[in-house]
From TrEMBL:
Belongs to the cytochrome ubiquinol oxidase subunit 2 family. InterPro entries: Cyt-d_oxidase_su2 (IPR003317). GO terms for biological process: aerobic electron transport chain. The keyword Zinc does not apply. Keywords: Cell membrane, Membrane, Transmembrane, Transmembrane helix. The chain crosses the membrane at residues 6-37, 82-101, 113-138, 158-180, 200-223, 229-247, 259-279, 299-318. GO terms for cellular component: cytochrome complex; plasma membrane. PANTHER family: CYTOCHROME BD2 SUBUNIT II (PTHR43141:SF4). This is Cytochrome bd-I ubiquinol oxidase subunit 2 apoprotein. It is a multi-pass membrane protein. The keyword Transferase does not apply. It comes from Paraburkholderia phenazinium. GO terms for molecular function: electron transfer activity; oxidoreductase activity, acting on diphenols and related substances as donors, oxygen as acceptor.
């Protein structure tokens, strides 16, 4: 039996992207929450919760990019040229965030400037990721396997709204993470901030879903015209159930549940995205089979991935295990 390698690689890259959103999402979210907490002690605790793990979280962004290059090179001649500016700005934001994270702890007179760089880099990276997502969903003009649109096709009300939606998602993840990792007054403040954020997130998910169904006939057909609505319906139902669960867990002062349910919301939103575009890797017309490299190339890179990916997963699991537990003001920071 021959393995359908494009499907295998689509699953690997899809997994890598989701793990990146799940992990790097909450530490980008902490940068988004920084403006609401001006106390030096609060900000230091917030940073200390992600100090041991933030750079490891970005490993999966590299995995996704390298996997695309090796398994789906046509994506590089379509998706990337269509989004050069937001992708470059995303990298700039990640660089500023990383540099600010390392230099802030060693600065004295310029610490406030590095706080601004940390906040600005987090906002820029999250916003640009959402814009690229919106550009992908609304479709990219392709002729003969190459991008044939205008340089600013990515700039649309829909893509900008998706950018705002990603910021809301990351901020909610950041709140959930800090409820899990902190206690006392900071934890109480995070519960207060998370309540409206979850409501905003639900609203954003509803608007994006309605926008795609109304504006994109292919997506509307996939959900309502293909006869598979019964299989897809659990996704929105579970979204509402998770939001209710978050509000309930915040009221009952649970510590891990808000974060876990927010991760579930991200998974459900990601599932809805995959349902909407499958089997296209670049909507509206480029499928995973049309975009794939040769069978031998995909097989060669798959061998390396099978060896390296478990190591990455074990490493990430161990870093969270080693640095588990609460982080409090006055604790020695990780450097």
């Amino acid at each position: 039996m021959q393995i359908d390698l494009p499907v295998v690689w689509a699953a690997i890259i899809g997994l890598g992207v989701f793990i990146y959103v799940m992990l790097d999402g909450f530490d980008l979210g902490i940068g988004l929450l920084f403006p609401f907490f001006e106390g030096k002690g609060d900000r230091q605790v917030m940073l200390n919760t992600i100090a041991p793990v933030w750079d490891g979280n970005e490993t999966f962004l590299v995995l996704g990019g390298a996997g695309l290059y090796g398994a789906f090179p046509v994506v590089y001649s379509t998706l990337l040229p269509a989004n050069y500016l937001p992708l470059i700005l995303m990298v700039v934001g990640l660089i500023f965030r990383g540099a600010a994270f390392e230099l802030r702890g060693k600065a004295t007179r310029t610490q406030h400037a590095w706080d601004l760089a940390f906040m600005g880099g987090s906002v820029l990276a999250g916003l640009c990721q959402g814009i690229v997502l919106g550009s992908l969903l609304q479709g990219i003009k392709i002729v003969d396997g190459r991008f044939a649109g205008a340089p600013f096709d990515w700039l649309s009300p829909f893509s900008l709204f998706c950018g705002i939606g990603v910021l809301a998602t990351y901020a909610t993840l950041g709140c959930g993470w800090l409820i899990l990792k902190t206690d006392g007054e900071l934890q109480r403040k995070m519960r207060e901030v998370m309540r409206p954020l979850v409501g905003v997130l639900l609203g954003v998910m509803a608007i994006v879903s309605l926008w795609t169904v109304v504006g994109l006939p292919a997506v509307a057909f996939r959900w309502f015209g293909s006869g598979n609505l019964g299989w897809f319906l659990p996704v929105p139902v579970l979204v509402v159930a998770c939001v209710w669960g978050v509000f309930r867990s915040l009221r009952l002062k649970h510590e891990a549940t808000p974060f876990l349910l927010t991760l579930a919301l991200c998974f459900l939103g990601y599932s809805g995205l995959l349902i909407s575009i499958w089997p296209n890797i670049v909507p509206p017309s480029l499928t995973i089979w049309e975009a794939s490299s040769s069978h031998s190339s995909q097989l060669f890179t798959l061998v390396g991935t099978v060896i390296v990916l478990p190591i990455i997963l074990v490493y990430n699991f161990m870093q969270y295990r080693v640095f588990r537990g609460k982080v409090r003001e006055g604790d020695a920071g990780y450097h």
